[in-house]
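User: Some background: our group keeps a shared notebook of sequences we're curious about, and every so often someone picks one and asks for a predicted structure to add to the entry. Today it's my turn. The entry only has the sequence so far, pasted here. Could you supply the structure so I can complete it?
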Amino acid sequence: MKKSPLILIADDDATIRLVLEKKFKKDGYVTKSTSSGQELLSWVENGEGDLIITDVVMGDSNGLDLIPLIHRINNAVPVILMSGLNTIKTAIEANNKGAYEYFPKPFDLENIASVVK
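Assistant: Of course. Here's the predicted structure to add to the notebook entry:
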């Protein structure tokens, strides 16, 4: 039996984590979520995660700064970035840092789900 892909979610907003977890579990994925960018990095260092969804602004870190660190550990894992700081500069910086995709908040859940698929 093939194991379900593991999606790692990092966002300091518990509601967003919950919404994403419910959607992806319903779609057959396994999820782990945290409010901490540092905890996310430790999971990646342990070899976890087939896909990462992270917020830009969190209490202990910045998602834009996490992307190069994540890719240094595992260059194959796609990172989807989302942010309430919905500016062109953020979108460009996300692209430049190697984000697979960028979603401004509030986001359309179905759009994220289709990109994840």
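Suggested note for the entry: The longest helix spans residues 14-26. The longest strand covers residues 6-10.
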